[in-house]
Amino acid sequence: MLIIYIAILFTISFAQFAPHFDGESAFDFLNKQCSFGPRNPGSEGHANFKDYLINYLKPYSDEIIIDEHNIPHPYADDTLKLFNIVAKFNPNLKNRLLLMAHWDTREIADKDPDKNNYNTPILGANDGASGISILMLFAEMFHLNPLENIGIDLLFVDGEDIGRHGDLDNFSLGTKLYAKSLKKDYPQLAICLDMVADADPQFKIEYYSYLQAQNDVIDIWDLAISLGYREFSYEMTSPIYDDHRAFYLATGIPSIDIIDFEYPYWHTLEDTPDKCSANTLSIVGTVVSEYIYRMDQK
Question: Is 48 helix (H, G, I), strand (E, B) or coil?
Fold first, then answer.
């Protein structure tokens, strides 16, 4: 009995390198974002949430960078303001990891079953708010439980979802602009969180991620499965072009995507908080934070 107890204690302690990740708190951040309404560039919700996010990050971050860009709207006679927001932790360390998610939402519901909704902006609870909610909680975590050997850049990237179907040049615009501005202290790895709150999640290995950072993908999926999260599987998905792919093509930095692309409400008006889950946010947040804190102790 003593041997069994020791074995169980070892297993529990082995799984607790990182502080507890509170999925309910992350879900509160998801709801908070959605309370601003659609957050597509140029909208009132976009401007208001930008201010809220910056004010939230300031007391936790070692350094804040606000990277503003004026760009022509690719599909309208208009100018858009994009804001990439970077919260840095341990900015003096060269051993760095980039965690990224897009905070903008889509200005058209082009996958909505009702074609009358095509030109209506979406709320983006999963496609937009979910990855950001995890990064927001990470900011507090890294402040209260500082990493010793790793520098972290939390990139809240704008302008990911402006493009139209088949027009890859106008997706991930903020990431492409950020990559151009990156001049030193390149991160060794970028992890993108996109659509990570589906109430019925399936986190398969995205093809580009495997191509771009095979060893890191396997390490993260091995960790998730060892922690008992069957929502992660070794099944491969088709290639998905989003921020991780754009960042890799622009910089050559290994970049991966944790994404559940089998989400039936993608780019529809039904992408709302009731389709999302605090438990799913807890799973992804726990896996990524465990990965980071274990790396920090190596």
Answer: helix
Q: 211-234 pLDDT, tens per residue?
A: 999 999 999 999 999 999 999 999
**Domains by residue range for the chain, with CATH:** 19-297 (3.40.630.10)
pTM of the model: 0.94
Can you tell me the distance from the alpha carbon of 61 to that of 89, in angstroms, rounded to the nearest whole number?
Answer: 6
At 267, give phi and psi (nearest 5°): 60, 35
Angle between the N-to-C axes of helices 243-251 and 173-181, in degrees from 0 to 180, rounded to the nearest 10: 30
Token pair of 99 as six digits: 């965690």
Q: Is 98 exposed, middle or buried (0-12, 13-18, 19+ CB in 10 A)?
A: buried
Closest to 29 (Cα-Cα) out of 278, 298, 295: 278
Single-letter amino acid, residue 137: L
Which structure tokens are listed for 102?
Answer: 């897009």
Place of tokens 């079953």: 113
CA atoms within 13 A on the CB side of 201: 28
For 175-225, how does the pLDDT look when each residue is reduced to its tens digit (9 = 90+)?
Answer: 999 999 998 779 999 999 999 999 999 999 999 999 999 999 999 999 999
